[in-house]
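By convention, each integer encodes one residue's backbone shape. The lines below illustrate.
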Amino acid sequence: MTEILKGAPVAAKLNEEMAAAVAELKNKGINPTLAILRVGEREDDLSYERGACKRCEQVGVTVLNVVLPADVEENEFFKVLDDLNNNDKVHGILMFRPLPKHIDGERARKMLNPAKDVDGCTDGSLAGVFTNTDIGFPPCTAEAAMKILEYYNIDPKGKNVTVIGRSLVIGRPVAMMLMHKNATVTICHTRTVDVPSITRKAEIVIAASGQMESVNKEYLSEGQTVIDVGIGWNEDKQKLCGDVLFEEADGLVEKITPVPGGVGSVTTSVLVSHVVEAAKRCVK
């Protein structure tokens, strides 16, 4: 019988740890603060913002909502971002992307201070992932996958792990984080020949291609742990699903994360934990 690796208890543990850390910081006169920089009213941004605000409220992190109109002038946007970078009371910045076309998104990404980059999008943060140092922070989804493995005592050390997907948001960062845990990692992507023959040999599979329900039983084998990072609507637009065809994985693999209720439910807690960690670094 396949064990379902739910994200809720992982998030609950993180939240408990964060609440204690926030209380300790406040006793030292430090108020962990997240600035959310949003341009316009995109529904996916608003949904994520609501989740982040709720999580911050639960653990005692202050939120500064900075909302700019969709037609804000580029110079004004960069002035606001610069002010947040230089505001000592702001410990983390969540900058929603993509930005409107008239704002240079690459310039904004490079301008964001890595020390406040709690979403892990800057070159500095990605360098920190690759060097295993505390420059910035890892992308939240990649770290959420690692937190699930840790919580359920699934040690990647010495194991063969296959990552499906090579994006800078999840594929490559999570591969590096797994290597830091002494896993042997293979990355599969759109130019990989015969992906199923590779994934079937893995002990852990991280499905992060963004292709809904593309990983079927041909990709999987008994005894595997499967971390499904994808989330979206299936072809019929009838249900939320992941990259893995759950019905074919269930009963075959040993462990799997559900969608929804798996990696995604941990991601927001990881984001807020980065704010708390950024505040802690100010004490050092």
